[in-house]
Design a protein that fits this description.
It is a single chain. β13, α11 and β14 form a beta-alpha-beta unit. The longest helix has 27 residues. The strands form seven sheets. Strands 11-12-10-13-14-9-15 form a seven-stranded parallel sheet, with helices on both faces. The radius of gyration is 30 Å and the shape is globular. By secondary structure, it is α/β, with parallel strands linked by helices. The chain contains 22 helices and 30 strands. The structure holds adenosine-5'-diphosphate and zinc ion (ZN) (2 copies). One zinc ion binds next to loops. The site of one zinc ion (ZN) has 7 residues, from loops.
């Protein structure tokens, strides 16, 4: 037998599989990790077996040994990795690495064991105690007898800190026995059981279609407002999978992967649930991976990368909030979890269920126009939950009336009423810090980051200026660095300022703020949310962190402090983002028996998107936005490719970028041919919107291509042009980037 092995060296020069002979005494399978001699020095190197063949024409070296007693990667995952390497043009190795936890690397065994003690079978504790002279030994014996069964050695050491030699004596005498057990760290605290409600007719119909009509490899989109019962539909579909002996993966955006979400799945499926998110320790992640692999965990709830979980006999992948940008990986391999999930269900013969209140334009057009996805709807919120009323507050009118506070009169009144009744409220603003920028009133200079081409954000609590791109920070200067004037003034509002103004107006109300500044330490995130849930705080102020997935029954008012922060982003996605955000935020209000209210503050009350959000009319928004996109040939009608070049020297970089763009244009036109040439809508080289970050200059080549049959060839031509560059110069490639700064 011969094995094709991808070695664990992240370099394109050794990216192809190498053939090794499998010695007779070894039994290896595809997907197994092995140790092989590699290179001129025959260094023992780790690698993955990607395939096996019976013959090989050239002489080859032998595999040294297998690193695990089982294949770390299943056959369907191997196929998926191959697809990823091709589709996203990354190293085979990097695609394989996605399938295994980072801790599973190298030759030492990462499985943690814990020592357990117990009385040796047949030993009579009372009789033995008489024969023992050492009081410590007698104490240990009584402890062990009291516990009855095996117990962790750690517990004995906590009870009797200095008993090691006495314990050794007892083990030697054969009175106690010690053994090591595999330790599984369980990241889930609460698995309190809950029961399923009886589903509404609309929910039952959705479940029926997913379970009975959807065929292997097919995708359905469940479109329903927040609170319409989508999660209950997922739970019922997963239950059906489990009953058929299959497993399920549930993807949720990282930010929505709250203890509450996890509790909902654990409540229904108990110990069969595994979780995978970025707050797990490497050890916890490794243990969850082993539980999934072993088949003990059959429902995997996780963020983006859980799409690679080693679930066997996969029946269903659920992707909640499918429109979320966090499903796009921001580092290489730059995969999108939705595309990977579609591929995986096709490989495994599973089904894919997407869910959202505000599907992305691409997804919704695939469902209603191309009809690639089955569309399922939940048009109403479940019993007794009405949609919140949405008011729009015109901030221009506030200013005209002399109100310079961050709160419109409508919002201030609503806060007084709601909080006065003892109910809770949330205030949402997509900008952390105190003020967006600080400028000098004498000379107009804006305080900017020394390393980046951006203004610094004022963080008042620490009284520092902070760069949100490179995190550089310095104390707020007392005088203007350009003209030495003392008249510095801050502009723009951040979450800290909202909190300050609120506390001034409502000194008796307990407030919490949640943004990436306040939840840096481990556990802070859970604590802030827990306090709000328990009513210890009555108002929660936050960035998009609070917009997603939380279900607080006592929240009856949501204020959007400035809808314009997202609406005015220089990005074709800004309207879609704003609509999604306003809808998500509105979904936080009035979840249980109390009616909800939403107040959206804006300087653009006439903007159509604000109107659609106010009416909570997704269909109208979809048709409007599709027209806008068609006018300008934006995705989904076209594909954007952004190549981001970075370098030390602005002039050199700009020259490189311009030359590259010119060459690329020639190559693309050759690939497309005369008839296909119009598909190249745009190709330009220019400085990136933020031309410098952390001291590095940034230039971008933007390419816009019409969706035609030749798209794939055109993309491959772009990939090849990038690959042909020296590794140091190679740009960062993104297809339809979600951020374009
Ligand atoms: P979504 O995922 O669409 O936001 P959920 O599934 O979370 O909606 O449902 C919203 C609320 O309604 C939850 O508290 C849920 O327990 C409850 N709920 C959902 N379906 C039913 C049902 N059929 N009967 C009673 N309560 C339900
Ligand atoms: Zn100045
Ligand atoms: Zn900076």
């Amino acid at each position: 037998m011969f094995a094709q092995v991808v070695v664990d060296i992240a370099h394109s020069a050794v990216g192809r599989p190498y053939t090794y002979a499998v010695p007779d005494h070894l039994c290896v399978e595809a997907g197994q990790r092995v140790l092989v001699p590699f290179g001129a020095g025959n260094r023992a190197t780790e690698g993955f077996v990607v395939s096996l063949t019976a013959a090989c024409d050239t002489p080859c070296k032998e595999i040294l040994r297998a690193l695990d007693p089982y294949p770390a990667i299943h056959a369907d995952q191997l196929a998926l990795a191959l697809w990823i390497a091709e589709t996203y043009r990354c190293l085979h190795l990097d695609a394989l690495r996605l399938m295994v936890p980072p801790l599973l690397r190298g030759t030492d065994n990462k499985v943690k064991h814990e020592k357990f003690l117990c009385l040796t079978a047949g030993v009579d504790a009372d009789a033995s105690e008489i024969g023992l002279r050492s009081p410590v030994q007698r104490e240990i014996l009584r402890f062990a007898a009291g516990r009855g069964q095996a117990f962790p050695k750690k517990e004995l050491l906590d009870f009797l800190p200095d008993c090691n030699s006495a314990l050794a004596a007892l083990l030697k005498k054969g009175i106690l026995r010690e053994d090591a057990r595999e330790l599984y760290r369980d990241p889930i605290g609460d698995r309190a059981a809950t029961t399923a409600p009886s589903l509404t007719a609309a929910q039952r119909e959705a479940v029926r279609i997913v379970c009975e009509e959807l065929r292997s490899g097919e995708t359905a989109l469940l479109h329903g407002v927040t609170g319409s019962g989508k999660t209950e539909v997922y739970l019922a579909c997963i239950d059906d999978c489990l009953q058929r002996g299959q497993t399920a993966i549930v993807l949720v955006p990282e930010i929505a992967l709250t203890p509450q979400t996890v509790a909902r799945f654990c409540g229904r499926f108990g110990t069969r649930v595994a979780v995978l998110h970025s707050r797990l320790s490497p050890g916890e992640r490794f243990d969850e991976w082993r539980r999934i692999r072993a088949g003990t965990a059959r429902v995997i709830v996780g963020a983006r990368s859980a799409v690679f979980a080693p679930a066997r006999n996969l029946g269903l992948i659920v992707m909640d909030e499918e429109h979320e940008t966090s499903y796009q990986s921001e580092k290489s391999p730059r995969y999108h979890a939705l595309e990977v999930a579609r591929q995986r269900v096709q490989i495994c013969g599973a089904r894919l269920l997407l869910g959202s209140a505000t599907p992305s334009l691409t997804t919704y057009s695939r469902a209603v126009i191309a009809k690639n996805y089955r569309l399922l709807r939940l048009d109403e919120r479940v019993v007794a939950l009405s949609m919140p009323e949405v008011y729009v507050a015109d901030m221009r009118a506030e200013l005209a009336a002399g109100n310079t506070s961050v709160f419109s009169r409508a919002l201030a009144d609503a806060l007084t009423e709601t909080l006065g009744r003892g109910e809770q409220a949330m205030l949402f603003l997509n900008r952390r810090g105190y003020a967006t920028f600080v400028s000098c009133r004498a000379c107009g200079a804006v305080l900017t980051c020394p390393n980046c081409d951006v203004s610094l954000t004022h963080h008042k609590l620490e009284n520092r200026m902070r760069c949100h791109y490179c995190n550089a920070n310095a104390p707020l200067p007392s005088r203007c660095p350009s003209c030495n004037s003392p008249h510095l003034k801050s502009f723009g509002v951040g979450t800290q300022q909202v909190q300050e103004q609120f506390e001034k107006q409502f000194p008796q109300i307990a407030v919490a703020r949640m943004d990436s500044d306040t939840v840096t330490e481990k556990g802070a995130y859970e604590r802030v949310l827990g306090d709000f849930r328990d009513g210890k705080t009555q108002l929660l102020i936050g960035t998009q962190m609070i917009a997603k997935g939380h279900d607080f029954p006592n929240v009856t008012l949501v204020g959007v402090v400035a809808a314009d922060t997202t609406l005015n982003l220089p990005n074709y996605l800004s309207r879609e983002r704003t609509f999604q955000l306003l809808t998500q935020v509105a979904g936080r209000s009035g979840r249980q028996n109390l009616p909800g209210r939403v107040i959206v503050q804006t300087y653009n009350p006439q903007h159509p998107v604000i109107g659609f959000a106010q009416a909570q009319d997704y269909e109208a928004f979809f048709h409007y936005e599709m027209m806008e996109r068609r006018k300008c040939c934006l995705p989904p009608f076209s594909v954007f490719v952004r190549l981001l070049f970075t370098g030390e020297d602005a002039m050199k970089l700009s020259a490189l970028c311009t030359d590259f763009a010119m060459e690329l244009e020639k190559k693309l036109l050759a690939v497309l041919g005369e008839s296909g040439a119009p598909a190249l809508l745009h190709l330009s080289a220019a400085p990136a919107p933020v031309a410098r970050i952390a001291g590095k200059c940034r230039q971008q080549v933007l390419i816009k291509l019409l969706r035609t049959k030749q798209l794939r060839d055109a993309l491959y031509c772009i990939y090849a042009a990038c690959d042909a560059l020296d590794a140091r110069l190679r740009p960062n490639l993104e297809v339809n980037p979600t951020e374009m700064y």
